[in-house]
Amino acid sequence: MAKFNADYIITMDDIVREGHPVLRTVTDPVKLPLQKEVREALQCMMQFLKNSQNPEISNQYKLRSGVGISANQIGLNQRMFAMYLTDAKGNIVEHALFNPKIISHSLSMIYLPESEGCLSVDRPIHGFVPRYETVKLKAYNLDGKEVVLRFKGYQAIVVQHEIDHLDGIMFFDRINKENPFKLPQGVEIRSLYEPRSK
């Protein structure tokens, strides 16, 4: 982990690709109080997301744009992830979390009409990935404080995608094997970009 210190720049060469066993590993909880090297590794992951969304830097380092990254995607068996995105109102949403756990979720579900993407997957994958529309999360932040956070819509999708990684689950595992565009029965589910039915 020492490699991912405060000055290290994560590039696509550091991203573990599908087929690597670490992506199928249920990650170990991060020990508290937080160790400096663990905190720096997560800060490094956050900086990667920021760099990947900066056209100049991403072009310089040939980065694929990402909104979330989990520790096992850079080969670390640690239960932590970072997310960085801009919401519909143009606000920056930035979270670096240790030992995240979903403590409740909605019954209603959503999916991205274009499927999901993943920094660890280089091939196009088509199909709907059902996700809970809202999730409530308990985790620890970079200060080592326990936080409870609620996510809805696209942010909830990102959080569930990253927590799946930490549980050794890839997004395509959730696509219906027989029919990739078949949605689960008996639940309220809609495309993220469809208006909610009245």
From TrEMBL:
Binds 1 Fe(2+) ion. Its EC number is 3.5.1.88. Keywords: Hydrolase, Iron, Metal-binding, Protein biosynthesis. One of its GO terms (molecular function) is peptide deformylase activity. Fe cation binds at C118, H161, H165. It catalyses: N-terminal N-formyl-L-methionyl-[peptide] + H2O = N-terminal L-methionyl-[peptide] + formate. InterPro entries: Peptide_deformylase (IPR023635), Peptide_deformylase_sf (IPR036821). Its cofactor is Fe(2+). Gene3D superfamilies: Peptide deformylase. The keyword Metal-binding applies. The keyword Cytoplasm does not apply. GO terms for biological process: translation. The active site is at E162. Belongs to the polypeptide deformylase family. Removes the formyl group from the N-terminal Met of newly synthesized proteins. Requires at least a dipeptide for an efficient rate of reaction. N-terminal L-methionine is a prerequisite for activity but the enzyme has broad specificity at other positions. NCBIfam families: pept_deformyl. This is Peptide deformylase. It comes from Paenibacillus monticola.
